[in-house]
From TrEMBL:
Keywords: 2Fe-2S, Iron, Iron-sulfur, Metal-binding, Pyridoxal phosphate, Transferase. It comes from Roseococcus suduntuyensis. The lineage of its organism: Bacteria, Pseudomonadati, Pseudomonadota, Alphaproteobacteria, Acetobacterales. Residues 7-373 form the Aminotransferase class V domain. It catalyses: (sulfur carrier)-H + L-cysteine = (sulfur carrier)-SH + L-alanine. Coiled coil: none annotated. This is Cysteine desulfurase. The keyword Isomerase does not apply. Its EC number is 2.8.1.7. It comes from the Bacteria. Catalyzes the removal of elemental sulfur atoms from cysteine to produce alanine. Seems to participate in the biosynthesis of the nitrogenase metalloclusters by providing the inorganic sulfur required for the Fe-S core formation. InterPro entries: Aminotrans_V_dom, Cysteine_dSase, PyrdxlP-dep_Trfase, PyrdxlP-dep_Trfase_major, PyrdxlP-dep_Trfase_small. It holds the Pfam family Aminotran_5. Belongs to the class-V pyridoxal-phosphate-dependent aminotransferase family. NifS/IscS subfamily. It is an enzyme of class 2 (transferase).
């Protein structure tokens, strides 16, 4: 008898590669493998044209100009380039009399938090704002922080653990009113919610290919042209990507990012509606099986595929151990090796004991209603067994 097929419910960590994306990339590995910067010959020019088409597709997804898309290795690099690049372009210690304040949230991805903190050693002032119990930024708190001249505000569009959506348009308007730059980490938002850089007033926006059913190792940073946002590059090289990100572009990965962006632009909102229906099936089944189950930040706006759940009486580690055929996580894949509680849950006022009983579930494009029913039954049975074992041990 064959082993049961695993059910993948960790789409915030990474998404499976869409077969259409793989098909689009294959010729650029097998047939035209040329360097896209080799303009002297036909194969190089063809690769460069494919890169440009992919850039246009990414721009279309964001309502941007293709000239505003800088290709990177992923959102982590894009976030570092946006935050450190903007600060360092302003000059050592913020320039002569210029603003040195950089504002972000306590629930941001670690690469954003660490970038902001790294800049403190260079004379900039990091300001880490709290969020409410629902994970949403208080606009009044941001307004008060902006009363001090500010260089940059960085706010994640969709949280990678809770799926909470921040009010980007309101944040962007407030930031622009105070004359600061606005950056958003949109790795979890692109392809899941509508995103338009003009509507949200973004100056800088980061995304990653493997969060939108594209390949790993490729991402992009949107950099506004009018009014022009200037960045200092993170490293030196051949001057590719307008001098902001040197290095040979991996044409197959770039093509994959472009195809993933094209599909997301055409199907992302349809995906969201279907996934929301599946999430309802899963949650209904779990609540029927597990009295006292809590959805964290349940009242806040959130992406369709997310459930952040705290289980009564049973640790997340124990549940994961009892569910080898369900691919789940306790939080961010970038920090899952840490022993300390999730900094996101801590910022929302969730204590260490509750955080240890919390799982993140992420649905996606290729999950099915039948899998949601199976997952609910499997989690419910595992929770019941573990709860009975705990009760017997007492």
């Amino acid at each position: 008898m064959s082993a049961p097929r695993p059910i993948y419910l960790d789409h915030h960590a990474t998404t499976p590669l869409d077969p259409r994306v793989l098909a689009a990339m294959r010729p650029w590995w097998e047939e035209n493998f040329a360097n896209p910067h080799s303009a002297e010959h036909a194969m190089g020019r063809a690769a460069e044209a494919a890169v440009q088409e992919a850039r246009e597709r990414v721009a279309e997804l964001l309502g941007a100009d293709p000239r505003e898309i800088i290709l990177t290795s992923g959102a982590t690099e894009a976030n570092n380039l946006a935050i450190k690049g903007a600060a360092r372009q302003a000059g050592p210690r913020g320039g002569e009399g210029g603003p040195r304040r950089i504002i972000t949230l306590a629930t941001e991805h670690k690469c954003v938090l660490e970038s902001v903190r790294d800049l403190a050693a260079e004379g900039f002032e990091p300001v880490i704002l709290p969020v409410g119990a629902d994970g949403v930024l208080d606009l009044d708190a941001l307004r008060q922080a902006l009363a001090v001249p500010t260089l940059l505000v960085s706010v994640m569009a969709v949280n990678n653990e809770t799926g909470v959506i921040q009010p980007l348009a309101e944040i962007g308007a407030l930031v622009k009113e105070h004359g600061a730059l606005f950056h958003t980490d949109a790795a979890q938002a692109a392809g899941r919610i509508g995103l338009d850089v003009e509507e949200v007033r973004a100056d800088l926006l980061s995304l990653s290919g493997h969060k939108i059913y594209g390949p790993k190792g490729i991402g992009a940073l949107y950099v506004r042209r009018r009014p022009r946002v200037r960045l200092a590059p993170l490293f030196s090289g051949g001057g590719q990507e307008r001098g902001l990100r040197s290095g040979t572009l991996p044409a197959p990965l770039v093509v994959g990012l472009g195809e993933a962006a094209r599909i997301a632009g055409g199907e992302g909102l349809l995906d969201a509606g279907r996934i929301a229906g599946q999430r309802a099936i899963l949650l209904e089944g779990l609540r029927a099986a597990i009295p006292g189950l809590r959805v964290n930040a349940e009242a806040a706006p959130r992406v369709a595929g997310n459930l952040n759940l705290t289980f009564p009486g049973v640790t997340a580690a124990a549940l994961l151990g009892a569910l080898p055929d369900l691919m789940l996580s306790t939080g961010s894949a970038c920090t899952s090796a840490e022993i300390s509680p999730s900094h996101v849950l801590t910022a929302m006022g969730i204590g260490a004991e509750e955080a240890a009983r919390t799982l993140r579930i992420g649905l996606g494009r290729f999950t099915s209603p039948q899998e949601m029913q199976q997952a609910a039954a499997m989690i419910g049975a595992a929770w019941k067994s573990l709860s009975q074992h705990e009760a017997a041990a007492e």
